[in-house]
Amino acid sequence: MIDAHCHVWERWPYAPQVPDPEQRGRAEMLLFEMDRFEIEAAVLICASIGNNSTNRDYAFGIAEAHPDRFVVFPDLECNWFGIPRRTGAVGRLEAALARWSFPGFTVYLDENESGAWLGEADAAAFFRLAAERRLIVSLSAFPHHLGHVAMLAERQPDLTILLHHFSFFGPRSGTGPADLAPLRRLALLPNVYVKYSGMGNIAGEEEEYPYLGLRWISQAVGECFGPARTIWGSDWPVSQRHMTYRQSLELLRRHGPYTASEQEAVLGGNFRRMLAATGV
Q1: Chain segment 41-74, per-residue pLDDT in tens
Q2: What is the pLDDT of residues 208-267, one digit of tens each?
Q3: How far apart are CA 141 and CA 270, in angstroms?
Q4: Is the Cα torsion angle 207, 180, 251, 153 positive or negative in sign?
Q5: What is the dihedral of CA 176, 110, 136, 228, to 10 degrees?
Q6: Bridge partners of 192?
Q7: In sequence order, what are the residues at sequence separation of 6 or more whose Cβ sits closer than 8 angstroms to the Cβ of residue 10?
Q8: CA–CA separation, 271 vs 157, rounded Å?
Q9: Distance between CA atoms of 5 and 234, rounded to whole angstroms?
Q10: Residue 112 vs residues 115, 138, 142, 237: alpha-carbon distances, Å
């Protein structure tokens, strides 16, 4: 199995503060969980938030120490860097490629932005280079961003886009079963995939594992994208605020929309093929 969405941090970045802020997000803790549940490898999705401005260096250092266990997706063009996205994105991607070797990267669209940047000239050059280098784009996008995501995927058919956390349908975005049209449009584009991850992140405060009231979300992803274009991730350690590592697995294995044979693809086969296509 491959966990396609994890984080590691040297310092816990969220409030309220925890009693072990310099341990809770450490890679050693993730390796412990991976070994317990026979997870072969994991993708470290960088997020340089909180007091973790060197998160990319930390993640790449961990991957260098454990090359068979971790793949790193550095965070690029994210608002927390304080760099306007309007110009220079392609140069920053070139600089990152010169500094590190990686098969993909992550971009976080801010919850309060429109997503229009995805259609601007600077972004076009940025994503064109990503497609040329066969990089996977792990994209944090909310339902109101998906129109722009669809246009990007249509303009760049060779670009592989992997959406985070069911694309945040559900209570956090204030969406329901009647709001799924943007997801269905994306499902028509073969270069777009969705992560089966982060259910606790998108749920309301009153909801808890196994999130029976939100099964319409996983069912919609299953119907739209099927087992061939869905990829599981634990969202560790953020998920630990909502469920155990085992429960993040069981949310798919026991409560998901796929059969046991289909789950093999979702739990690693799909991402393994995606990774092989990058040539890294």
Answers
A1: 999 999 999 999 999 999 999 999 999 999 999 9
A2: 999 999 999 999 999 999 999 999 999 999 999 999 999 999 999 999 999 999 999 999
A3: 21
A4: negative
A5: -10
A6: 161
A7: 22, 25, 26, 52, 54, 55, 58
A8: 18
A9: 6
A10: 9, 19, 9, 24
